[in-house]
Amino acid sequence: MRVSVVGAGLGGLALAQGLRGAGIEADVFERDPGVVARFQGYRLVLNPSGFQAVRDCLPTRWHPLLDEIVMDASAEQLILDPQLKEIGKLGAGRTGIVVDRQVLRHLLLTGLTVHTDAALTGYDVLADGKVQAQFARRTPATADLLVGADGVTSAVRGVLSPQTIPTDTGVRFVIGRTPLTDEFAGLSKAYGSKITGDGVSLLLGAMRFRTPPKQAAEQLAPDVTLPDIGDYVRWAMILPPNGSPGDLTAQDAVLSRMEGWHPELRALIEQADPDNSTLLSIRVVKPGERWASGPVTLLGDAIHATSPTGGNGANTALRDADLLRRCLIEANEGRQDLLSAVGDYERQMFEYGDEAVRSSLEKLPAFAPEAKLS
Question: How many C-alpha atoms does 142 have within 13 Å on its Cβ side?
């Protein structure tokens, strides 16, 4: 069996790693000119299911390394004012495993065949049931299964399910990171909490590695090369609908809304890494009606993009990867045919994917009351 995975995000890479470990050929096609061409450096909180899914997709020899580059998460989820005084609670405290997206992505890239500058333009299902993917600047690729793991603007979804389109909530947010130094020790109670003022919400989260990733890889898995990155604070400011910062840089857009805020909060933004700060929009993709059964399917944000306020986007994509991996192994071993295996995956994925989008949108008004949820 051969699988073509379109998209080198966490879900697509986890699937490719899992298939590779099972002896199934998997090629990854990425439209970006390089695997690190875009900002992808913020921290993630994985729930037990998400973390187990990525472990199951990785070779067991890398499990000690994975365990060393994560941290346990525990936060009270308070609501604070701009002077860091508690004014409420968001809800029950959140626990999980914290991982840096860039570091995890480098681990997942190890050993895979990734074709960059490969923008999909379409695909054809051939007479023998295989699928041939066409690309703008490379030769076509033929496989038994084509998986669209290419995000909110999925080119694969555009052909497979053109009626499924992203919904823009109107909410924008600026995200960035700042090295975690002793200067910011006083902000510890704000990690995992929401700081609210002047119509915006500022969210902070600490990333403390048990061992620096580059050093951990050198010690535990010499065949893996991880970024040389230290502890940091991830920050995100959620802007009101139509609150675009215009021509301001990401940092200046945030600082412009923090007049009179606690000096440590302002210093945190002022000392941010400008190369890891950017403006993003919150768009969602709700799974609609299933498409006709065939050798093409979707994974992750391509079919169920969630609001980041739900904290379940990466977890759901990794769950997809692990579930599809298991189903394809069954087909490869002759326990069921390929289309039945893909059908089993899609039935389950549509159910929990729809729930993931719904629950993420339910939590969005707590951060952006005027968001468009219809």
Answer: 6
| Tokens linked to 339 | 């289309």
Amino acid, single-letter form, for residue 15? L
Confidence of residue 367 (pLDDT cuts 50, 70, 90): confident
Residue with tokens 């061992």: 211
Whole-Å CA distances, 46 to 98, 172, 216, 226, 331: 6, 23, 20, 19, 29
- As a whole number, mean pLDDT of residues 113-134 equals 96
Structural tokens at position 164: 């499924």
Q: Is the pLDDT of residue 49 over 90?
A: yes
205, burial (CB in 10 Å: exposed 0-12, middle 13-18, buried 19+): buried
pLDDT > 90: what percent of the chain? 72
Is the predicted pLDDT of residue 33 greater than 80, yes or no? Answer: yes
User: Could you give the strand order of the β-sheet that contains 145-148, starting from the edge strand earlier in sequence?
Assistant: 113-115, 25-29, 2-6, 145-148, 296-298
Name which of 197, 234, 241 is nearest 365 in CA terms: 241
Q: Are strands 194-197 and 78-80 parallel, antiparallel or unpaired?
A: parallel
Looking at residue 31, its pLDDT comes to: 95
Name the residue type at position 352. Y
The per-residue pLDDT for 18 is: 98
> Closest Cα partner for 14 from 103, 105, 140, 138?
105
Q: CA distances (Å), 101 to each of 227, 229, 315, in order? A: 11, 12, 12
Given a cut of 90, is residue 245 above it in pLDDT? no
